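**User:** My hope is that you can spare some time for a protein that puzzles me. As I understand it, each token names a local backbone shape. I would be glad if you read both lines and explained how they fit together. The protein I mean follows directly.
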Amino acid sequence: MMQQYIEIKAANADSLLFYRMGDFYELFFEDAEVASRALGITLTKRGKHQGEDIPMCGVPVHAADDYLQKLIGLGHRVAVCEQMEDPAEAKKRGYKSVVRRDVIRLVTPGTITEEKLLDPSEANYLMALGRVKGTEEQLALAWIDISTGTFRVAATTPERLLADILRVDPRELIVAEPVYHDEALRPVFDVLGRVANPQPPSFFDSSSASARLSRFYGVATLDGFGRFSRAELSAIFGVVAYVEKTQKAERPPLGRPERDEEGASLFIDPSTRANLELTRTLSGQRDGSLLKAIDRTATGAGGRLLAERLTSPLTDPKAIGERLDSVSFFLEEAPLRDGLRELLKGVPDISRALSRLALNRGGPRDLGGLANGLEAAAAIAALLRDKELPAELISALSQLTALPADLAAHLEKALADELPLMKRDGGFVRADYDAELDEMRALRDQSRRVIAGMERDLVEETGIRSLKIRHNNVLGYYIEVTANNSQVMTGTDEAKARFIHRQTMANAMRFTTTELAEMETKIANAADRALTIELSVFDRLVSEVVAASEAIRAGAQALAVLDVSAALATLAESEAYRRPAVDDSLDFHVEGGRHPVVEQALRRQLGEPFVANDCDLSPSDGEKAGAIWLLTGPNMGGKSTFLRQNALIAVMAQMGSFVPARLARIGVVDRLFSRVGASDDLARGRSTFMVEMVETAAILNQAGERSLVILDEIGRGTATFDGLSIAWAAVEYLHEQNRCRALFATHFHEMTALTEKLPRLANVTMRVKEFEGEVIFLHEVARGAADRSYGVQVARLAGLPAAVVERAKEVLHRLEEGETGGKADRLADDLPLFTAAVRHEPAKPKEADRLRQALDALNPDEITPKEALEALYRLKAFGSGD
């Protein structure tokens, strides 16, 4: 057995081997040690190998999905090795024969389909990188969701490779081994970590890709799929070859590869995607992200489509307008929208059920889910049929109408109302569907009544009231009596001839009879035959479903489109969002804009409204480029929120959503860049300032006139004059070279002078009020420039010691007044630093009492002016020892 294990493990060296032994999947050697740590299960040992104990651990087969979920979540890959024959068959070959086993499937992060292992609202993409070297190096990405059949491909470049990968956010990226070790691309794979998975170069052979892909799809030629470059074919074939490797004999119902045209979606670089927290926060949580704030979908498929649209906003105003038309329709048709959403809540995940069935991993409930989904789709189609629909919804309705109604009727006729989880349990075919099955079931059920009758007859015949007829998998049916009553069964030769002894227990004995054995044969045959018929019905139904897979996938996508459109209308209604105008201009005009995430958090946590602000980066009269706003103002004033909210409004508008504003007119943004916040990259030897400069360099080197750039506090991570110089030069470059629309926040107030020489640069500031020594942040953006940052006040709010705050005030005052000639090092003459601050601390209690007594002793009405002056001198010198 261990020899067999070692051979199978050698063929799957990069995976943990789940080796089936009876009711358990066992792991041995290093696999056992890894799994026991990852799963928190006991590590034992079994036998010896080369004189040493063999580590072993195992998980029950019935609970394997739970353990797989944890292992896959940790980035492991698992090879599932099953027993390919009944152990009884192995015994027939001899006592040394081992049950035949083989790997039936490789479970990897990008190829899972089990319902328990997948997040309903998140896609599970497997991606492949194809590279072809020629006169110019070509790169392409192909990605699939094996659980839904989605298949996409796109060309890319080394410069935007990481951004394109993160846009899709695959669970697994497969790469040819030489590419994986290429020094030029190595930084990309370092960022991805365990997501990147090197594979043999043969998987990516573009020269043989066409022929092998034709065989996979069962077509004579790929001409009907469109024309693909060699790099795209390499990526497409790579992902298909990996599916064939991991799924063994099973073939998922993949759609034909569809190309994502270059420039069709808004380019968002990796740091911008992270900074804006589109789908996850910087800490990796879904709560607090834009996706969480706007998701009102009713189905898992709708949630996945919403996330896809959010991460890949469009750049075609016409396509964006069609999506917005759908949202407008459902906003105006509230009763229809509510009825649709109620129907959608009952729709199962059709596309994932289809994939499980096609891969021979589905069960009766997947068939039942498909039946319910097809029924709901028909009801939704009837709901929309007589309405004047916008273009996108007309297309969705046609896809729903094309769903096979006869298949839905057949499934309804064939499947019982209550369905088991596993097909092996039987009982999922409806009565009256198959005559032979009904006959076998009647025989099986009647035989059970006969067994009960035989038990009653034996009780009366023997007089043993405790006699029972029971069943187990070893003995089959048997008669069980207590040890005290066994004499009745063995006391005479006649009794011995009739009651055949089978087993002696500690306090009971078991027997059988010829009549019971014959009845058992009839029952076993009837039950086995009934199950055989049911499994045959299941296979026929699955074949019908897979044959209609293309129409079912299209129908599932149509339901997702309806869900997203209705959900965005619900969002717009509940949050008072407005339809944006998106065109080919260079405008960026927002009135009353709000941050969609912060607004909801303020309302939910504090019950406070969000302060809305305008933003206008549109070209002024005569200008052919957008404006730049130079934003100054205090810490805690809301600068970062204002920057982010305008970027998010652009993303939401171009994904086809209404936006949190009174009015929004946006010329299509083709590239979005954001440099907000501070972070380091110590693993790659980069300080916070270095990361800031790298990200800023990427923006200045790539932004064009259609770009939207969000920059916050450039140059703050170095010396004051260095930082000011860098920020100054960056603004000039954005204005003169990039000529893009931009928001640039800074604490370098000196930069406000740039507006005198840069015509498209405008000064704006976050307003504050000072009242009785306190600073009140108004969170309002107004024209003009700030001359203070109120950093010391923020430090006090943060809880710095009072002595530190007081000393900081003094240092700030002296710097502002020019006492030190603008040089902070002259303040060192006042060391120790907090001497002055101590003098400003409140008087000690005893001194306060003496001061109070001295004041009480004074009577202003009875002293002369000279005495009053002398008293004043004494009070002034109080505490100095006089």
Observations:
- The first helix runs from residue 2 to 11.
- Residues 831-841 have pLDDT under 50 and may be disordered.
- The radius of gyration is 38 Å.
